[in-house]
Design brief:
- The longest helix has 18 residues.
- The protein is α/β, with parallel strands linked by helices and 359 residues long.
- 42% of the residues lie in helices and 14% in strands.
- β1, α5 and β2 form a beta-alpha-beta unit.
- GO terms for molecular function: DNA-binding transcription factor activity; transcription cis-regulatory region binding.
- Keywords: DNA-binding, Repressor, Transcription, Transcription regulation.
């Protein structure tokens, strides 16, 4: 009586509740824990399913399971980007020495997957979480998580409007320095490749290029901001679209090194040689940047150092209970290598619109 037609086990389990409610096991657990991140609609379905299958929540057993573990959750938006592998090495140096282990998850830039991963990690009792938000994440998506008992520190990408502790590189300053370098080589037209406007990294790095060009009396042409996935294949595609534009610039800055590597591939596919026919600057200085051919000029953000700093902050939050939001900005500096080529002119570059184009 009161049961659904689908048969359930003699002693109903949390999986039975999840199946009847049409939600994940993690969502049922969060409802049982009275976690505020679950929507009212999902909460109502879960509570109705609990009544229908006759599930009894053993809170004493749950309390034992929910005691804090020695695990730290690491949630990244793109595990294929070597930046995050290097960042994870830095994190591990810190968390391992403190007696913790890392649990890493990949959201693939999916806000929905991100919500599932965060719920699962909280259910399994991680002591804290480091999160690089997926594309399109809004402050509202994380507000309930940030208000919960488990400390969460954001890394790489910040979210305007969210009261959170965030560790980010000085993206604008690094990009500004790189743009000044290209202008100093004689480029008065510079393209931007990779990324999408719905991330803070894209916005701050592109703003450095825009500002440097404006300060030199140059105009950044928005048509030459070519969006793509922030990956090597994305860089190939972005460079292809740029080369299809009549009168395109012969210099570009890329949202990260992965896009820059792809841009170099795209140039070679068109019969051009990076560093000789076209100037390219990356961002992050991942390990492959120094051994690339040509060696990649890039903005170093030191992913390992970012990982160490972020882990230190999270461990402090775990031990102290400090929840005050703050933004920690780590240095970014230009590393000049071969991918920008030689100066157009040995003389000083005028800081006005008469700067000659390299090609």
């Amino acid at each position: 009586m009161g049961r659904l037609e689908d048969p359930v086990s003699a002693k109903p389990t949390i999986l039975d509740v999840a199946r009847v409610a049409g939600v994940s096991k993690s969502t049922v657990s969060l409802v049982l824990q009275k976690n505020p991140i679950v929507s009212e609609g999902a909460r109502s379905r879960v509570l109705a399913a609990i009544r229908q299958v006759g599930y009894v929540y053993n809170r004493n057993a749950a309390n034992l399971r929910q005691s804090r573990s020695n695990a730290i959750g690491i949630v990244v938006n793109d595990v294929t980007n070597s930046f995050f592998a290097e960042m994870a090495v830095g994190m591990d140096m810190i968390v391992q020495s403190a007696g913790f282990v890392q649990l890493m998850a990949h959201t693939g830039e999916s806000v929905e997957r991100q919500a599932e991963v965060l719920s699962a990690m909280l259910e399994h009792g991680v002591s804290g979480i480091i999160l690089s938000p997926a594309r399109g994440t809004r402050a509202a998506d994380l507000k309930a998580h940030m208000a919960g008992p488990v400390p969460i520190v954001l890394a790489v990408r910040d979210l305007p409007g969210l009261r959170a502790t965030t560790v980010v590189a000085d993206n604008r300053a690094g990009s500004h320095e790189a743009a000044r370098h290209l202008i100093g080589l004689g480029h008065c037209r510079i393209a931007w490749l990779g990324g999408f406007p719905d991330t803070s990294v894209y916005q701050t790095r592109l703003s450095g290029l825009r500002d440097a060009m404006a300060e030199a009396g140059l105009l950044f042409e928005e048509a030459y901001a070519v969006e793509s996935n922030a990956s090597r294949p994305g860089g190939v595609q972005a460079m292809g679209r740029l080369l299809d534009m009549p009168g395109h610039p012969m210099a570009c800055m890329c949202v990260n090194d992965a896009v820059a590597f792809g841009a170099c591939d795209g140039l070679r596919g068109a019969g051009l040689e990076p560093g000789r026919d076209f100037a390219i600057v990356g961002f992050d200085d991942v390990m492959g940047a120094r051994t690339a051919v040509p060696a990649l000029t890039t903005v170093a953000t030191d992913p390992e150092a970012v990982g160490r700093r972020t882990a230190q902050i999270l461990l402090h939050r775990i031990s102290s209970g400090d929840v005050r939001p703050e933004t920690i900005t780590t240095p970014a500096r230009l590393v000049v290598r071969a991918s920008c080529g030689e100066p157009w002119s040995a003389g000083p570059v005028a800081a006005a619109g008469a700067v000659p184009e390299m090609r």
